[in-house]
Each structure stands twice: as C-alpha cells, then as structure tokens.
C-alpha cells in the first residue's frame, strides 16, 4: 500500500511539473504571439470573448476525453457553481478594473512594486482559508520572488511617468486601487484552490463556469464601453484574420493550465510559474527579435531560481509532540 501511495504521489508530482512547465512556456510566449498575430484594429473585447468561448470548448473536450463529462453534468447545480466559481470570477473582474484605474495614475515602477504584493496576499489567504502554512524559508523565498518580479516588471515595463496631478490622486486612484486589486487577486486564487482541493470541484468545470460568468460581465460592459460602440459600428470580428485565432486559442489553453496548476499545486506556486514566465518572455525576445535581456532580467534570474529551489526544498513541517 505504501509503495502504491508513493508511486501515485510521484505521478502527481510529475503531472504538476508538466502543467507548470507548459504554463510557464505559454505565459512567456503569449506576449510575442499576440503582438505578431493580433492587428491593432482588433477590438479587445472581441478577442477576450472569443478566448473565453475557446476555453469552454477546450474544457468540455478534455472532460469528455477523461470521461467525466456525463458525471459532472448530472451532479452540477447552480448553487454549487456560484459558490465555487461565481465569486472568484466576480472578484477577478473587479480586480482587472482596479488595475486599469491604477495603471493610469501611477508610474510603472510604483505600479510594478505594489502589484507584486499579490503573491504575499495569496499566501495569506491560502493560510486563512485552507490553513496551508509556510515555513520561514518559504516566506523568505516569497520575498525573493517578489523582488525578482519587481525587477522583471521594471525591465520590461514602459517608461511612462506618472499622470497624476497631485498626491491625493496618486493615493486614491493609484496606490489604493492596486493594493485592493492585489488583495482581491490573493483572495480569488485561494478561493479557486479551496473549491478544487476541498470541495473537489473539477478544474475544467471551474474554467467553464468562470469563463461564462466573465463573458456575461464583458457583454454587460459593452452596453456602455467604447469597445461595445466599436463592435456595433464595425462588427465583432473587425480587424481579424485567420491568424488571429492562434494567440486566442493559445491563450485559452493557458487558461486551462492555470486551472490545473491552481488545482494541483496551489495559488502560491502559480505565482512562481508566472514570474518564471517573465524570464521566458525575455529569452524569446532575444531569440526572435534580437532584443537582449535587460540588466534587471539578468539580476532577477538567480533570484527566481533561488526562490523556487528554497520553496521546494523547505516545506512546512508539523512539529512533533514530545512524549
């Protein structure tokens, strides 16, 4: 029995590693693929909605392939869906809006630094909701990761200065929104992990439910947004070519992988994957565009490697009670 459990654990670890590597590659390559195949004329809302539809199709396909589609269909309830996926989806939608407000009112350095605090909030809410503790070494690894993320964001970020006209605007329309967005990001990630690991909600089903909720929010926004007006004036697929589907489908597969990594490895480790992907982006830019990695990237590389190594090597150990 012990040997069987060990083998099962090894298979699970291998699966988690595979999903993490695939997500790192997808997340790292996505900016270059999108830049190459999505024309400037394409309406953002149309590409996002199409991506959500593609996520649903992919998730249904994978569920059918593993034979769980029929069982999930019979067991599905609206209350269960709203509990597991509705709240995280609504939180992510609010988070994205807050980030857009903040980015317009903060310089790139301040925005990047504050935005990386979501890794700490993810660890906090994971402990608060799931009682998943971190060792002292793992907490140190998280701070190393945040430092690396800030360096990478600065290196890849734009050089725009602050557009805020006074301190109050910077505080209330810049700093507060990005901090609230970081808290919401950590909460949503922990809730997704809780739904998949505690409530045993299928990651594929969560992807479907969150995509539907997110799509409904986007459709509602088109009633008043500039994108909605552009769609009504030019059509939904304005500016599209057959090649536009490549980054859209690629992004949809990335959404599936995010669900799998969160389900099997947790939201904190997903943060490690996403930061590592920034290094992949820098490498691909050097290979395909001849753009050498910045000094920030070169300094961040050993920080990322060290943080991942420390986090994996020193997991939290339950203290043994003395006899």
TrEMBL record:
Belongs to the nucleotide-sugar transporter family. CMP-Sialate:CMP antiporter (TC 2.A.7.12) subfamily. GO terms for molecular function: pyrimidine nucleotide-sugar transmembrane transporter activity. It is a multi-pass membrane protein. It comes from Crotalaria pallida. It is found in: Membrane. This is Uncharacterized protein. GO terms for cellular component: Golgi membrane. InterPro entries: EmrE-like (IPR037185), Nuc_sug_transpt (IPR007271). The chain crosses the membrane at residues 44-64, 76-93, 113-130, 139-158, 170-192, 204-223, 243-264, 271-287, 293-311. It holds the Pfam family Nuc_sug_transp. Keywords: Membrane, Transmembrane, Transmembrane helix. Coiled coil: none annotated. The keyword Transcription regulation does not apply. The keyword Ribonucleoprotein does not apply.
């Amino acid at each position: 029995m012990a040997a069987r459990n060990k083998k099962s654990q090894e298979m699970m670890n291998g699966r988690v590693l595979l999903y993490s590597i695939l997500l790192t590659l997808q997340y790292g390559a996505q900016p270059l693929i999108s830049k190459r195949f999505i024309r400037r004329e394409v309406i953002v809302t149309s590409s996002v909605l199409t991506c959500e539809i593609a996520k649903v199709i992919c998730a249904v396909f994978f569920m059918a392939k593993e034979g769980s589609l029929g069982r999930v269909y019979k067991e599905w309830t609206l209350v269960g869906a709203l509990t597991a996926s509705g709240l995280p989806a609504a939180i992510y939608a609010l988070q994205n809006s807050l980030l857009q407000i903040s980015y317009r009112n903060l310089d790139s350095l301040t925005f990047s630094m504050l935005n990386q605090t979501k890794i700490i909030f993810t660890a906090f809410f994971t402990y608060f909701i799931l009682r998943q503790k971190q060792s002292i070494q793992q907490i140190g690894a998280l701070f190393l990761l945040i430092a690396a993320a800030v360096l990478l964001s600065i290196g890849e970020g734009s050089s725009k200065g602050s557009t805020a006209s006074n301190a109050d605007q910077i505080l209330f329309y810049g700093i507060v929104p990005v901090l609230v967005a970081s808290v919401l990001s950590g909460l949503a990630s922990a809730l997704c992990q809780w739904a998949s690991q505690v409530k045993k909600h299928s990651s594929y089903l969560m992807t479907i439910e969150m995509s539907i909720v997110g799509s409904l929010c986007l459709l509602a926004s088109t009633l008043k947004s500039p994108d909605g007006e552009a769609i009504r004036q030019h059509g939904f697929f304005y500016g599209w070519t057959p090649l536009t589907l490549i980054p859209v489908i690629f992004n949809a597969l990335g959404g599936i992988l995010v669900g799998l990594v969160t389900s099997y490895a947790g939201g904190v480790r997903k943060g490690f994957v996403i930061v590592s992907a920034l290094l992949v982006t820098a490498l691909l830019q050097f290979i395909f565009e001849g753009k050498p990695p910045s000094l920030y990237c070169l300094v961040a590389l050993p920080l990322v490697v060290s943080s991942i190594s420390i986090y994996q090597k020193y997991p939290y150990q339950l203290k043994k009670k003395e006899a």
